[in-house]
Amino acid sequence: MSASFVYLLLRQILQMLTQLARDGGARDVELLVLCHQIAILRRQIRRPEL
């Protein structure tokens, strides 16, 4: 149980450090990739037949 707690704590700390290390350019690229993924997923949805 303590090993899993230490793992979760370490994971949260590393996640916070990576968030602090990111610059605006990386965030912009991530937003573009996510928007592109959403566009692809929207194209895959079949429209109901009338």
Can you characterise this structure?
The protein is mostly helical and 50 residues long. It has a domain at 23-50. Helices cover 82% and strands 0% of the residues. The protein has helices spanning 2-21, 24-44. The longest helix has 21 residues, at 24-44. The model has no long low-confidence stretch (mean pLDDT 83).
Could you state the order of secondary-structure elements as H and E?
A: HH
The general outline is flat
- Average of per-residue pLDDT values: 83
Counting DSSP E segments of at least 2 residues, the number of strands comes to: 0
Distance between the termini: 55 Å
Give a short account of the largest sheet.
none
| Poorly predicted ranges | none
User: Radius of gyration in whole Å, from Cα?
Assistant: 19 Å
Number of helical stretches of at least 4 residues? 2
Structural class, from secondary structure content? mainly alpha
